[in-house]
Amino acid sequence: MNYVRNAWYVASWSHDLKPNAPVGMHILDEPIVLWRNEDGVLTALQDRCVHRMAPLSLGRCEGKKLRCMYHGLLFDRDGTVVEIPGQPKIPDHAKVRNFPVVERHSWAWVWMGEAAGADESLIPPAVGLDHPDYILGHGHLDYAAEARLINDNLLDFSHLSYVHAKSFGAKEDWAQERPKITTLERGLRVERWLKSESGIPGRSIDKPTDQYSYYDFLIPGVLLMTGGVFPAGTAEALNYARPNIDEALTGVTFTSQAVTPMTAKTSRYFFSWGPHRKHGDAALRDTLMGIAGMAFAEDRTIIEAQQRVIDATATPRIMPTSADRGITLWNLMIDKMIKAENAPLRQVS
Amino acid sequence: MNYVRNAWYVASWSHDLKPNAPVGMHILDEPIVLWRNEDGVLTALQDRCVHRMAPLSLGRCEGKKLRCMYHGLLFDRDGTVVEIPGQPKIPDHAKVRNFPVVERHSWAWVWMGEAAGADESLIPPAVGLDHPDYILGHGHLDYAAEARLINDNLLDFSHLSYVHAKSFGAKEDWAQERPKITTLERGLRVERWLKSESGIPGRSIDKPTDQYSYYDFLIPGVLLMTGGVFPAGTAEALNYARPNIDEALTGVTFTSQAVTPMTAKTSRYFFSWGPHRKHGDAALRDTLMGIAGMAFAEDRTIIEAQQRVIDATATPRIMPTSADRGITLWNLMIDKMIKAENAPLRQVS
Amino acid sequence: MNYVRNAWYVASWSHDLKPNAPVGMHILDEPIVLWRNEDGVLTALQDRCVHRMAPLSLGRCEGKKLRCMYHGLLFDRDGTVVEIPGQPKIPDHAKVRNFPVVERHSWAWVWMGEAAGADESLIPPAVGLDHPDYILGHGHLDYAAEARLINDNLLDFSHLSYVHAKSFGAKEDWAQERPKITTLERGLRVERWLKSESGIPGRSIDKPTDQYSYYDFLIPGVLLMTGGVFPAGTAEALNYARPNIDEALTGVTFTSQAVTPMTAKTSRYFFSWGPHRKHGDAALRDTLMGIAGMAFAEDRTIIEAQQRVIDATATPRIMPTSADRGITLWNLMIDKMIKAENAPLRQVS
């Protein structure tokens, strides 16, 4: 699996993790149990008891600890076994891996690299459900496809013209015009002006406009996008530079999306979307979520089909087009980061 | 997969391929998209976009062309990419494989070998649904089994006495007596006289008869069978040679059946059957189709079970009997043809 | 698959094998057909026709014989082919393997080693459904897990405190106290006194008692357990030795359980349980079967989950505890027996 390990992966919506209800999931093929103790504190441990490999996600929360419900080994938050029923001595190696976990922006983020390197400043600045400026709907979707293919999809919006002609009402211009792509320290920025756009279904505007959108796609696979509708001529007046979103006529929304590789061929896709308070209300949020539901199903249909074709092909081969520049830059960045992760550490003398 | 490539495989009933509705299927493990354009012309292409391997069978017909609905590459009938949205230059290798396809006898036949060798005279002379002499019902059935096992079944009718004792009311004589088998250029001819046969359920005759049947089993796996019921004594009078079918008392029917290997372990089985106009009507056709439905389900039950046993056996091994002569001759022919296909081509100087 | 071959495996409840109704199943990955002929005699053969590998379990009983219903080969009880339709000569090697099979204690037991070694005295002394002393309920359950994990479960009852806290109302003492374990010639004996036990739900006793239970766990994976409730103080008075079960106050039951490895990752679990006639009736039997139904579902949930974790782990590793002594002794015994089975036989001169 060709994914960066030194990164924060979204494991769950924070509110889906109730106290005393351990949840099992996979990230990068690692079985992980997420559990919130009586104090509300979240812990992420390897979901595999050291004793006989039963999943701890079938375990029972006891105060601040978690008990394996096969033979009763009790685990502390750091993964250490603190009780073996009927056995006074606990071996030193009786310990499962603990994964750093942080709750932020309504998501539970798990660090998949060495714990020592976990740096909270690397958590992408997603917009949480409680953000004062936005009225957000949310959800998640499971894919029978590798996360890489979903990342590819999000790195190239030329597919909007074909996959989302119906849901987003996207025109050919998404495929015809290439966005401006800038490399960030841990990701890419993708900006685009589309002129005379008439908006998306349910939000049409009765005169020509310039529509601006921009998103950051950040390690390990988090898309943060906003934009708005401006008077026709704005794009040229600004020489196609970034406008002040606060000055948009209408149509300012924000979406946070996170792609988490569960196993080699399965992924979980978390998303929120909704209007800026100045440009919409709960009714518009619900309209947008209806559109998103249709659009994300369109994506999943083509991506899972693509996965099946790849799996059935002895020697998979692609032919990049000029629309793939973002994907290419992203993959170079990923390859470089993985290479750095695998490099032998130099001694600091 | 041990199948001949230089052959016409049935891909579909012709009438199941509607205009502007691409259909994906597999033949010999190759993903193939079949699409009929606005002119009614049928095309068969590799069902895998050169760009990112999305299936073209999820694409959209545009006039005479087919567009991949992931990122919009447009394909001509010969498999060439003629448009990449937003990219003026199209690489020379932007092309998927085109398979020769011919509609004949109500079926769409695809040539799986090199296109240059596609010879329409090799299409087996099946009887189409519009044939003036026959009143035919038809259908198809999918198997979770390799085509080879279905071919084996069709090459040895001794199984009728056991598998089809109920549906066809077959007696022991099918298993006790060996048919006459003749080798053809691309297949086998199997002829059989059964004496004092009382017919099949619903078509019984109240006096002893001689029943003759014969079929050709042709490359790549097409069975064409006819026969009829004659006065008792005809077989001996003819010294068991082929009778004139036109002189049959009753019971003349025709069945065309085609076995198509989709993947290594899945197959599609196409069939038609019905009476000669002189010997029956639409009601008899429907009776026969009911019998065929039961009989083909009996075959599928035993063959899929056989496949499961084979798959669970480390070193599969068979013990041929004298009833297997047709299978043995067929496999020798197949092996020889495959060997010829793989032989290095001699230069013509 | 790490299982002893020279042993009797339970293949079925005897009464589930009706005359003229062949049944297919797997033991140690071997396909086996069990069939009862017109005389009521049971036979176990390899479930794979020598001809073309069709399963004989789809065959037809004919008098004392079994006919393959693909092409009609007829098998005698010893596995020899005695008829090939339409072929006078039968090859010497036309024979499938015959497995010794014995019906005893309401079960059909199949010997998986060389037939010559089949020794009926090795059949574990289970209690059959017709035993005069017990009123037994029974059933079976299929597992998507290897039999070894079910054996592990049955060899260590410390799991009762966690897996069966609800169904059996088991307290912590099952996990805290270690049983007495004795090695038998082909198995282990596990004995345990629990003091002041208040019984299981539905059978509570209103004063402190001592509860004794003991089971033999016998090759290849058969558990035979009994026990009873004694006046408080009995355990100390006996210095924790085995009591006379006939002197129990109440609570004497018997359970026979057999774990059969079907394939590498599937198993069938046969069980009976019920009270001694002096300590209960059919109503109590039904109560116990209700409890067992809940408990066996609890076991299956954790064991199948454990199997999935093992399967998803590149290098499975366990950390035995002091509760695992029975499992360790059992596995040493199994390893030794397998080694002996595989040793080259010495010539007797």
Question: Explain this structure to me?
Answer:
Three copies of one chain form a homotrimer. By secondary structure, chain A is an alpha+beta fold. Chain A has two domains: 14-99, Rieske Iron-sulfur Protein (3-layer Sandwich), CATH 2.102.10.10; 137-334, Naphthalene 1,2-dioxygenase Alpha Subunit, Chain A, domain 1, CATH 3.90.380.10. Chain A is built from six helices and 18 strands. A seven-stranded antiparallel β-sheet of chain A has the order 12-18-17-16-15-14-13, with helices on one face. The two termini of chain A are 34 Å apart. Chains in contact: A-B, A-C, B-C.
Number of domains of chain A: 2
Number of strands of chain A: 18
CATH topology of the largest domain in chain A, by name, is: Naphthalene 1,2-dioxygenase Alpha Subunit, Chain A, domain 1
CATH architecture label name of the largest domain in chain A: Alpha-Beta Complex
Q: Can you count the helices of chain A?
A: 6
Cα Rg of chain A: 23 Å
Strands ordered across the widest β-sheet of chain A: 12-18-17-16-15-14-13
Largest interface here, residues on each chain? A-B, 28 and 28 residues
What class, by secondary structure content of chain A? Answer: alpha+beta
End-to-end separation of chain A = 34 Å
How many strands, what sense, and barrel or not for the largest sheet of chain A? 7 strands, antiparallel
The ordered string of helix (H) and strand (E) elements of chain A is EEEEEEEEEEEEHHHEEEEHEEHH
Low-confidence stretches of chain A: none
Whole-number average pLDDT of chain A? 94
Percent of residues of chain A in beta strands? 25-35%
**Mind telling me the CATH class of the largest domain in chain A?**
Alpha Beta
Estimated helix fraction of chain A: 10-25%
Instruction: Give the overall shape of chain A.
Output: globular
